[in-house]
Design a protein that fits this description.
By secondary structure, the chain is mainly alpha-helical. It is 69% helix and 1% strand. It has helices at 3-40, 42-45, 49-64, 71-78, 89-102, 110-125, 138-155, 158-167, 179-195, 213-247, 251-268, 279-286, 295-308, 316-334, 338-354, 358-368, 373-385; strands at residues 170-171, 397-398. A two-stranded parallel sheet has the order 1-2. This is Chloride channel protein.
């Protein structure tokens, strides 16, 4: 590759990280404010969730075009099945996610972060900058670069963000050609996001462990359980979306009636405990404030319902919440520290649900401490191997059977 193209790629990555990091701060800070409003006025706002659903559906039908494919469109471009991502996807998915969270839907945020990053970087690579960039595989490289920046800017886990973007498009294959630009964009987005004051979740575990045969066996068993739960989430999400479309063909009826059902369930089940991202379950559980044995399954069901009927958001933070809640329940049964098993569940259910391996392990290191990488590696490896190649991303490609 000629030097001019290398310099162009580096500058492109820096600009991508800068712009995407800034957008993630806007999205993340407004989402935090929206969540605070929901907590303050929950009993009133939850009643309007069905109306919020109609607004979301109208926006996508009237203005969205192919943007309504969401993450599927990102994967289509990554696989070369689509050429363009409309820029209007960014404001539409941001606003729709804010609305979902404001009125009490159970959803995540990572899908939005990745869509923001992937959309912006892909469009930038097609503009005036194109002549300064490499031509071979550039659409995919640009997309992965933006995805890494988006994940890093919102979650502030720059190392994990790079590997998530590299491995998520095709399970079992790393897009190594995108390593340099993805790394530059991810680190840049991380620093921009941190400098502008976006909150980061970090929970250092102040414990020491030594691996022995008994401990390895316990975490292998835990990995099996977490892997099955992650697989259950991705399987039920896929079936839930299909079932919702079969039962209610009209998308307005689907999201309105679904919104009524979800609002009633979220209101009746502990008065909003399962609304939003699910970070409340993570924080309460890791701080020893108590987790119900059924928290993980109710969060799973309500998140699947929310996303199946057409509300917007992501799946990753709910997966973190489901895994962490389950781990905290299982820890005493295995005679292990609650925080450590909660952390293992946090990363392993996410990894199983997304069909990724290295990114979850690195998230564990960046959030809980790199001294636990051996434990995270054992747990995640087992979870990854037993998830049956199921993924929350239905357009993720597989290299073959595990």
């Amino acid at each position: 590759m000629e030097k001019r193209k290398i310099v162009g790629l580096i500058l492109f990555s820096l600009v991508t990280g800068l712009l995407v990091g800034g957008l993630e701060v806007i999205f993340g800070k407004i989402l935090i404010q929206v969540t605070e409003w929901r907590l303050s006025y929950f009993s009133y706002l939850i009643l309007f969730l069905p109306i919020a659903g109609l607004i979301i559906e109208f926006i996508y039908r009237r203005y969205g075009g192919i943007s309504d494919q969401g993450m599927g469109l990102i994967f289509d471009v990554g696989h070369g099945d689509q050429e363009n991502i409309p820029l209007r996807l960014i404001p539409i998915v941001m606003f729709s996610t804010w609305i979902t969270h404001l009125f009490g839907g159970s959803a995540g945020r990572e899908g939005v972060a990745v869509q923001i990053g992937g959309t912006l970087s892909h469009r930038m690579s097609q503009g005036k900058l194109a002549k300064y960039l490499p031509t071979e595989n550039m659409p995919k490289i640009a997309l992965i670069t933006g995805m890494a920046a988006g994940f890093s800017g919102l979650f502030q886990t720059p190392i994990a963000a790079v590997f998530f973007a590299l491995e998520v498009l095709v399970a079992g294959r790393f897009e190594i050609k995108a390593l340099l630009p993805a790394s530059i964009a991810s680190v840049t987005a991380f620093f921009i996001s941190s400098y502008l004051g976006l909150e980061k979740f970090i929970f250092p575990i102040n414990q020491s462990i030594s691996l022995d045969f008994s401990l390895v066996v316990k975490f292998v068993a835990l990995g099996l359980i977490f892997g099955i739960v992650g697989r259950l989430f991705s399987y039920t999400l896929s079936k839930g979306k299909k079932l919702a479309k079969d039962l209610l063909v009209n998308p307005y009826y689907r999201i309105f009636i679904g919104g009524i059902v979800i609002a009633l369930l979220i209101l009746l089940l502990h008065g909003g405990r399962y609304a939003g991202l699910g970070t409340n379950l993570i924080v309460e559980g890791l701080n020893g404030e108590g987790i119900h044995s059924y928290d993980f399954i109710l969060k799973l069901v309500l998140t699947v319902l929310t996303l199946s009927v057409g509300f917007q958001g992501g799946e990753v933070t709910p997966l973190f919440s489901i895994g962490c809640s389950l781990g905290i329940v299982l820890a005493p049964m295995f005679g292990l520290p609650i925080e450590l098993v909660g952390a293992a569940g946090y990363i392993a259910v996410f990894g199983s649900g997304t069909n990724t391996l290295l990114a979850p392990i690195l998230i564990g290191g960046e959030v809980f401490g790199f001294q636990f990488i051996p434990v995270f590696f054992i747990t995640m490896s087992v979870a990854y191997c037993c998830n049956g190649n199921h993924s929350i991303y239905n357009k993720q490609k597989m290299l073959g059977e595990k």
